[in-house]
Design goal:
This is Glucose-6-phosphate exchanger SLC37A2. With 489 residues, this protein is an all-alpha fold. It is built from 19 helices and 2 strands. It has helices at residues 7-13, 17-40, 42-50, 82-110, 113-136, 142-155, 159-170, 176-183, 186-201, 208-227, 232-241, 267-273, 280-284, 289-318, 322-350, 353-374, 379-409, 421-446, 451-480, and strands spanning 256-257, 263-264.
Length: 489
């Protein structure tokens, strides 16, 4: 009897095969992009080892030292302009990533996603490991490390359009915001794991801080090659080949059941599945792509400025030690996870992706102002303000790069052509990556004039992000008032 089954078994068997396959794809893509972020993080951890305070380091007795102040540093980062050199490495990655993202989506639409993603992760593992091998090969050339960062930035662009396309192909619009909000926590998980792994080796042999993450992402690339199924229709095909009559995905637009239970595929739908990949200009012409892309440019500018400068700000203003400031800054990411999930839930319920983003961005502006003025008065205030600011800043960023990108990549104007998803995702995230490169750069130029001016810059960016969404917000409001059909994106 079914009642005699163990509760856990009853729970497992309550899920259909469709649910299991969707969960499996969600888990795989989560794992893949966690590995991408895990391999990006070591550079921020290793910087403190490349240039250290040598007066606090015990010098080996047999070491012949010519400069007592920099004997423990790794050339060329032993110079006084080491911060500028670190900035060069950061911008080499970010600028290459921003430029490459616009081309990555085009390639992703024309190549099998499984192969494209596998090669991308294997290549990323190679270049991540090559940076660490500079330690063992005793390389002291800035050009070498800058070249590795450029190449790594380019190959890392294979990840985001591909994984969003996979998830978008498997999940409909009904709960897409919530599902992708939870799924998008892979960025924070990857950052945390990358920090922990790099921290294990950084003091003894910093090269392993890169080599181990490189091996991990390369292994996930192999996993991708053997297990990823980017389209749900591929499961249908495998079921047909095995002789089973029941369609795997009941909601698949490419499958219809005849009277005798056999599976038939409409010729017109097959043509849609194999339609030509959309052009770059064609993707730009999809309603909402330009607006959300420009909004993300300024939203990501704010998010990445916090990512690169928040620990230093906390250390300078609240006078925390470097490690304490770094630990405290992770609260911003914790708030971002909650903000991304809440943004997805609200936008699913209301159907207003643009309005959800705009409200959160408008609320973020005064919260940033308050955090700058009262956020460091006490430990409790600091924790609370970081969580709130993280949620309001990263919530719209997470929603746009996930659910909004998937919505626009499957927009009704495409008439069933699902091959636009990767290109649309690349355009939106590529434009946002320009802001990711500009934000830390502007903060570095403005910060000598005072932290207040940095926050004014961030508040202005939030307001500009809202301005670019104003037309879409007005359109959604008309839909709610019954004056126009309510359509996401």
């Amino acid at each position: 009897m079914k009642s005699a089954l163990a509760p856990g078994i009853r729970l497992i068997t309550s899920f259909s095969r469709d649910s299991w396959y969707r969960s499996f794809i969600l888990f795989l893509t989560f794992l893949f992009y966690t590995a991408y972020h895990l391999s990006r993080k070591p550079i921020s951890i290793v910087k403190s080892e490349l240039h250290r305070n040598c007066s606090t380091v015990i010098r080996p007795a047999d070491l012949n030292v010519t400069n007592n102040a920099t004997w423990c540093d790794w050339a060329p980062f032993d110079q006084d302009n080491y911060q500028t050199l670190f900035g060069v490495l950061d911008n080499c990655f970010l600028v290459a990533y921003a430029i490459g993202m616009f081309f990555s989506g085009i390639f992703g639409e024309r190549l099998p996603l499984r192969y494209y993603l596998s090669v991308g992760m294997l290549s990323s593992g190679l270049f991540t490991a090559l940076f660490g091998l500079g330690f063992y090969w005793n390389i002291h050339s800035l050009g070498y490390y800058a070249f590795i960062q450029v190449m790594n930035g380019l190959v890392q662009t294979t990840g985001w359009p591909a994984v969003v396309a996979c998830v978008g192909n498997w999940f409909g619009k009904g709960k897409r915001g919530f599902i992708m909000g939870v799924w998008n926590s892979h960025t924070s998980v990857g950052n945390i794991l990358g920090s922990l792994i790099a921290g294990v080796f950084v003091s003894s042999a910093w090269g392993m801080s890169f080599i181990v993450p490189g091996i991990i992402i390369a292994c996930t690339g192999i996993l991708c090659f053997f297990f990823l199924t980017p389209l749900h229709s591929m499961w249908d095909l495998s079921e047909q080949e095995s002789g089973e009559e029941e369609p795997l995905l009941q909601n698949s637009p490419h499958v219809d059941r005849t009277i005798n239970g056999a599976i038939s595929v409409e010729p017109q739908e097959v043509a849609e599945e194999h339609s030509e990949a959309i052009s770059f200009c064609g993707a730009l012409s999809i309603p909402g792509v330009m607006e959300f892309s420009l909004c993300l440019l300024f939203a990501k500018l704010v998010s990445y400025t916090f990512l690169y400068w928040l620990p230093l700000y906390i250390s300078n203003v609240a006078h925390f030690e470097a490690k304490e400031a770094g630990d405290m800054s992770t609260l911003f990411d914790v708030g971002g996870i909650v903000g991304g999930i809440m943004a997805g839930l609200v936008s699913d319920y209301t159907g207003g992706r643009a309005t959800t983003c705009c409200v959160m961005l408008l609320a973020a502006a005064p919260m940033l102002f308050l955090y700058n003025y009262i956020g460091q008065r006490s430990l409790g205030t600091t924790i609370g303000m970081l969580l709130v600011c993280g949620g309001l800043v990263n919530g719209p960023y997470a929603l746009i790069t996930t659910a909004v990108s998937a919505d626009l990549g499957t927009h009704e104007s495409l008439r069933g052509n699902s091959r636009a998803l990767s290109t649309v995702t690349a355009i939106i995230d590529g434009t946002g990556s320009i802001g990711a490169a500009l934000g830390p750069l502007l903060a570095g130029l403005i910060s000598p004039t005072g932290w207040n001016n940095v926050f004014y810059m961030l508040i202005s960016a939030d307001v500009l992000a809202c301005v670019f969404l104003s037309r879409l917000v007005y359109k959604e409001a008309q839909g709610w008032c019954g004056r126009a059909p309510r359509v996401r994106g």
